[in-house]
Amino acid sequence: GPAHLFRLAGKCFSFVESTYKYEFCPFHNVTQHEQTFRWNAYSGILGIWHEWEIDNNTFVGMWMREGDSCETKSRQTKVHLICGKSNKLAYVSEPSTCVYSLTFETPLVCHPHSLLVYPTLTEALQRKWDEAEQLLYDELITDQGYKKILKEIFGEAGLLKATEENEIEKQSKKITLEFETVEKCSKEYKQLSEEIKKLRVLLGQHGIAYKGNLGE
């Protein structure tokens, strides 16, 4: 993410509402502590630093995921970054069960370009983005195709964590695209045939009989 935000790492900011104290430690975690004298007062993790939320090519929030278990899922928190005079945790809510929303004010995001994704990327990924922009401009890809390329770029940059579903999709895509053209199929077949020839020679050197034909 934006390098200038790294100065927040190692610091924690708290916010007290009713009987709860919330603590946000950027690039680390979010915790909640019940401020009561009950014997079973809740104290736990609402999320661990996971990935950025990116909207309109801008960093808009930090996702803290995989917190303490809550019914059938884990607690998670989205931290919204907004411009403010000082670094402070300004607001906390729970829009849906076990999904929390924090608003963090900081002067570090006041500059209009402070949360742009493009400047944080490597030259190679910036080139990939430029190429995608050109393809979109030339109407060679759709808006959906453009967004898909951007998602891939953000993933390669480590800004988004690949979920298990993404990994499964990636693997199945790899398998289905393997022989998408006759040329590719022929090339693969040729390579495999060469490999079998080498293996047959190797087996022969060790006196092991090879049953079967090249086609198999």
UniProtKB/TrEMBL annotation:
<keyword id="KW-0732">Signal</keyword>
<dbReference type="GO" id="GO:0005794">
    <property type="term" value="C:Golgi apparatus"/>
</dbReference>
<feature type="domain" description="DMAP1-binding">
    <location>
        <begin position="117"/>
        <end position="216"/>
    </location>
</feature>
<dbReference type="InterPro" id="IPR010506">
    <property type="entry name" value="DMAP1-bd"/>
</dbReference>
<keyword id="KW-0964">Secreted</keyword>
<dbReference type="InterPro" id="IPR039794">
    <property type="entry name" value="Gtb1-like"/>
</dbReference>
<comment type="function">
    <text>Non-catalytic subunit of the N-acetylglucosamine-1-phosphotransferase complex, an enzyme that catalyzes the formation of mannose 6-phosphate (M6P) markers on high mannose type oligosaccharides in the Golgi apparatus. Binds and presents the high mannose glycans of the acceptor to the catalytic alpha and beta subunits (GNPTAB). Enhances the rate of N-acetylglucosamine-1-phosphate transfer to the oligosaccharides of acid hydrolase acceptors.</text>
</comment>
<dbReference type="GO" id="GO:0005576">
    <property type="term" value="C:extracellular region"/>
</dbReference>
<dbReference type="InterPro" id="IPR009011">
    <property type="entry name" value="Man6P_isomerase_rcpt-bd_dom_sf"/>
</dbReference>
<keyword id="KW-1015">Disulfide bond</keyword>
<dbReference type="Pfam" id="PF07915">
    <property type="entry name" value="PRKCSH"/>
</dbReference>
<feature type="domain" description="MRH">
    <location>
        <begin position="10"/>
        <end position="112"/>
    </location>
</feature>
<comment type="subunit">
    <text>Homodimer; disulfide-linked. Hexamer of two alpha (GNPTAB), two beta (GNPTAB) and two gamma (GNPTG) subunits; disulfide-linked. The alpha and/or the beta subunits of the enzyme constitute the catalytic subunits.</text>
</comment>
<protein>
    <recommendedName>
        <fullName>N-acetylglucosamine-1-phosphotransferase subunit gamma</fullName>
    </recommendedName>
</protein>
<dbReference type="InterPro" id="IPR012913">
    <property type="entry name" value="OS9-like_dom"/>
</dbReference>
<dbReference type="InterPro" id="IPR044865">
    <property type="entry name" value="MRH_dom"/>
</dbReference>
<dbReference type="GO" id="GO:0016740">
    <property type="term" value="F:transferase activity"/>
</dbReference>
<keyword id="KW-0808">Transferase</keyword>
<keyword id="KW-0333">Golgi apparatus</keyword>
<keyword id="KW-0325">Glycoprotein</keyword>
